[in-house]
Write a structure and sequence with these properties.
Radius of gyration: 30 Å
Distance between the termini: 63 Å
Structural class: alpha+beta
Family: Belongs to the COBRA family.
Number of strands: 28
Oligomer: single chain
CATH topology of the largest domain: Immunoglobulin-like
Largest sheet: 7 strands, antiparallel
InterPro entries: COB_C, COBRA_pln
Strand content: 25-35%
Keywords: Glycoprotein, GPI-anchor, Lipoprotein, Membrane, Signal, Transmembrane, Transmembrane helix
Subcellular location: Cell membrane
CATH architecture of the largest domain: Sandwich
Protein name: COBRA-like protein
Length: 463
Amino acid sequence: MENPFFSVFQTIPCLFLDQRSNFIAFLLIFFSLTCSFSPSYEYDSLDPYANVTISWDFLVENGDTFDVRVSLYNFQLFRHVELPGWKLGWSWKGDEVIWSMWGAEATQQGNCSKYIGKELPHCCEKKPVIVDLMPGAPYKLQVANCCKGGVLSSMRQDPANYGAAFQMNIGKSAGKVVDSKMPANFTLGLPGYTCSDPFQVSPTKFSKDGGRRWTQVLETWNVTCVYSQFRSSPAPGCCVSLSSFYNSTIVPCPQCSCGCQGIEGTKCVESGETPSVLQLPHEHYTAEVEPLVRCSQHMCPIRVHWHVKQSYTQYWRVKITITNLNFAKNYSQWSLVVLHPNLRNITQVFSFNYSPLNQYGHINDTGMFWGIQFYNDLILTSGERGNVQTEMLLQKDSEIFTFREGWAFPRRILFNGDECVMPPPDQYPRLPNEARRAMAMAATFKVFFFLSLCILITEEFSR
């Protein structure tokens, strides 16, 4: 008897021969779509519309110069820009120069020798790098929404400080014909971010006279920058450990989560030792500097510990501890995002701020935690005070609540917007055999009681 699968495979080549042209067209379309995807784009299901938008407004054009206002908006729910802050860069298409700036400054003035005898421009670089002014800058150099040291808060954590702005007077390119007065090749100067080409949008409008009159700029161009954790760092920056009151086993962070001890180039500080000042990076920490961490099996700068502390009649209590094992960095305005199915029943959070991230309508299984200002919004470098902790109460849900199969533990944890390494699910703390046996006996008793009740009711009705 002929094998049906063999006959099918015999038919396939004939189908391709009969429809060769359609198959070739399909291949061309497939490869064109594949090549059109940007390899730098990183999609995060917890924040699908996350980006940093640079808005470039042409305000006034005065003969040889024009005034520009540049605004940066952090449209990310839980990822912020921390110190030393953004460093905005671009490439001029012609010979433009920046005559003056307010709210920010260029890091280099560049070669302005052809302007000898005149007031020198603020910056003559072909590829300028712009940094934000620090808080407390002279009033005459400030503009609205400036001078934050390059720090941009996330939208959920601090909506009042997720934007920044500065203003420039730019000298036009002389003797060159360029296709656009917009520069190109924008960069944020932050690890992990890549920026798109400028694209024109509707002109920005401003209200005056209490909203009775509206004015608008000459042109507005936007640049969108997205973040990729893989591009930011080849290794994760945090890991998660687990424990519970019903199991004496503490599940540690997976081994070599952020690096392996003993590998050439890896530096760490043994327990009980204190690093010398010469070992520490410069005070203006940058992400390019390798963190100096305490020696451990995971070698992560940040460890998040989730402990199921207690079970009440209607609630269960969880303790979260974030420990900084990095000797080189304080973590300011930190944030923690947790994915857990029972967060929809969260009742009370102690010592942390909390906000749900409702990304899928009525499904509420993701929440964001962050520190209380001037209390625990700063995690100090490794040491006795290098940790923050909270406890929370979650109401038990009769439909989903159980301690079995690791249900009491989170599915994902992100620190400062980056994914933390979780232990394998088969290592999650489980109920002891006695507890499992007791639960099984309780379930058997419930079934037996229900069947007995049904029999009694049936006999009663049959009389």
